[in-house]
Amino acid sequence: MTGAEGAQLAGEGTAAVSGAPCLPGAGADGPGARRRTDVAERLCRAGPAGPSPMPSAGADGLPADRHTSVGERFGRAGPAGASPMPSAGADAPPADRHTSVGERPCQAGDVIVGVRDVTYTVDRATILDRITIDVRAGEVLALVGPNGAGKSTLLGVLAGDLRPTSGDVTWVDARPLRQVPLAELARARAVVLQDAALAFAFRVEQIVRMGREPWRGTSGETDDDAAIDRAMVATDIRHLASRRYPTLSGGEKGRVAMARAFAQTPQLFLLDEPTAALDVNHQEHVLSQVKALAAAGAAVGVVLHDLTAAAAYADRVAVMDSGRLARVGPPAEVLTGDLLSRVYRHRIEVLSHPRTAALLVLPDRTVAPPPAVGGLGVTVVAAAAPPSAGLRGAEVPDGPDGAGAGGLDGVGSGRRDGAGTAGPDREQAAFAAVGRVSAETAGRRAS
After folding, report:
1. Residues 201 and 241 in one domain
2. 258-288 burial by CB neighbour count: b if 16+ within 10 A, else e?
3. Closest C-alpha to 52, from 66, 64, 63, 38
4. I need a surface site. Which of 110, 285, 401, 429 has the fewest CB within 10 A?
5. Last residue of one domain, picked from the residues 344, 370, 396
6. CA-CA distance, 376 to 373, in Å (whole number)?
7. What Rg value do the Cα atoms of the chain yield, rounded?
8. What's the pLDDT score for residue 399?
9. Are strands 189-192 and 348-352 parallel, antiparallel or unpaired?
10. What is the DSSP string of 167-228?
11. pLDDT tens across 265-320, in order?
């Protein structure tokens, strides 16, 4: 949900539901008139119970400090772990399918949002060049490529936040995306941006609750507390519930943004580098949750820079280069050393893990680095000593050998070979160390 959608939702209230044919049983005489079938749960369920896209909130709720897999709490049988979703009965869709946005059934592999021959230009620069790609139910699509390749822009087009210069963007029922009401779109797709900036010091639970805003005034509002709790457990942030957002670390902020998206319970997740600020543990945890959502029938498009993670968690990988799609397909077919080396302009090796045979994508660090840009060379020193004269009369403390400040070989370091000196030479050496100051400037200050 974006800011513009939130503003429109405030005025639409319950009326928004009547314009969204994606909600089965919403009619006045329908058995489901007093309840909402969760959007993501209605996608492509396999088996009679139909997994929920989020962990169920049962009496056996798991400890807050445990990394709860979204998938492990799907569709449990019995009262303790009962799915919060309606069971398949006389008023529910057949067990082998779910209705989606629109009136037709949705199955794994169905296109939720797609672009056809899309071009996007800004100030005469072509950011996307004739892109054709789909995000499908039941799979994770990873967008990879170097900086500036157009990944985030493509995600914005898929979300409906950016209107392409040319080409078509279509929703699941073949409607042009621009014609989908914002209220419907806000319930059906969640977007997590690279920078989750907030202007006010909201508490974490308040931010996660914002994900439920699209359901305000609908029968789905009754599921708010359970959805929020499930999302906070799934992202391991329940212990942060009362913390104010500015006090969080970068990784914690990223997990809060993911929790808000999970609480929204959409059918489409569009995630822009969701693991960028996370430690290894939480990277794996978040991507496992994303994979479980797709397994439950949601569609996921995610921008990743970790190519090994893309190989492990994506069903399809789209490699982008200079605004174009270099290749799209299963990770094993797309992530090749030759292609990646060409796209990233650096030699890359793709290996098989010796134990699991999983793909490992690694840069070749034996390659000589590119030459430094002229004039930008830097001399790194441990601790530069200030000059002893000409700068407020400051004196440089002596090192342990009485020959100047210790710790810098050759720059007042107390070396016994004569390289560490005192007086004007010592001052000159200090100038050279801190800023590679020219001999002419150093001479003027010394005098």
Report:
1. yes
2. bbbbbbbbbbbbbbbbbbbbbeeebbbbbbb
3. 38
4. 401
5. 370
6. 6
7. 28
8. 45
9. unpaired
10. EEEEETTS-BGGGS-HHHHHHHEEEE-S----SS--BHHHHHHGGGGGGTTSGGGGGHHHHH
11. 999 999 999 999 899 999 999 999 999 999 999 999 999 999 999 999 999 999 99
Q: Which residue has the higher pLDDT, 62 or 173?
A: 173
Q: Give me the pLDDT at residue 174, please.
A: 86
Sorted by sequence, the CB contacts under 8 Å of residue 350 that are 6+ apart come out as 335, 336, 337, 340, 359, 360, 361, 362
φ and ψ of 333, to 5 deg: -90, -30
- The answer to whether residues 222 and 294 belong to one domain is yes
The token pair at 207 is: 């931010």
CB 179 within 8 A of CB 2: no
- The mean per-residue pLDDT over the stretch 117-130 comes to 96
Assign 395 to helix, strand or coil.
coil
Residues 42, 150: one domain? yes
> Would the pTM count as exceeding 0.70?
no
pLDDT tens digits, residue range 24-60?
Answer: 333 333 333 333 334 334 334 333 333 344 443 433 3
- Number of structural domains (the chain) is 2
Residues 431 and 352 in one domain: no
Place of tokens 């190519």: 307
Report the mean per-residue pLDDT for the chain: 73
Token pair belonging to 298: 């949601």
Is the C-alpha dihedral spanning 436, 437, 442, 445 positive or negative?
A: negative
Q: How far apart are CA 382 and CA 267, in angstroms?
A: 53
Burial class (CB in 10 A: 0-12, 13-18, 19+), 63: exposed
Q: Around 82, how many Cα atoms within 13 Å sit in the side-chain half-sphere? A: 7
Q: Which of 336, 186, 193 minimizes the C-alpha distance to 272? A: 193
Query: In whole angstroms, what is the distance from residue 212 CA to residue 228 CA?
Result: 8
Quick one: 314 and 283 in the same domain?
A: yes
Q: Which residues of 383-397 are buried (b: 16+ CB within 10 A; e: fewer)?
A: ebbebbeeeeeeebe
